[in-house]
């Protein structure tokens, strides 16, 4: 049963577009978001919100 859940909601890493190397780990729903994920999150190195893009 747990394997089906991991197929639908895999863990993905999102990395800062500011070039600081800061990363977050999150989950995404593969059915709703088949493409790469982009989120606006806080980057503590530059101390502001920037776009974080999914890396593989």
Break the fold down into its secondary structure elements and pairings.
Layout: H1 2-8, E1 11-16, E2 23-27, E3 38-43, E4 48-55
Antiparallel strand pairs: 1-2, 1-4, 3-4
> CA-to-CA gap between the ends?
25 Å
CATH architecture: Single Sheet
| Largest beta sheet: strand ordering | 2-1-4-3
| SSE string | HEEEE
Structural write-up:
The protein is 12% helix and 45% strand. The mean pLDDT is 92. It is built from one helix and four strands, in the order H-E-E-E-E. The chain is elongated, with a radius of gyration of 13 Å. The chain has a single domain (2-55), classed as Ribosomal protein L33 (Rubrerythrin, domain 2), CATH 2.20.28. The protein has 56 residues and is mostly beta strands. The chain has one helix at residues 2-8; strands at 11-16, 23-27, 38-43, 48-55. This is Large ribosomal subunit protein bL33. GO terms for molecular function: structural constituent of ribosome. Belongs to the bacterial ribosomal protein bL33 family. Keywords: Ribonucleoprotein, Ribosomal protein. Residues 1-22 are annotated as: Disordered.
């Amino acid at each position: 049963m747990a394997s089906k859940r991991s197929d639908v909601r895999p863990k993905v890493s999102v990395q800062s577009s500011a070039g600081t190397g800061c990363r977050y780990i999150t989950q995404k729903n593969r059915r709703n978001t088949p493409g790469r994920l982009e989120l606006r999150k806080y980057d503590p190195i530059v101390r502001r919100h920037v776009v974080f893009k999914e890396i593989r």
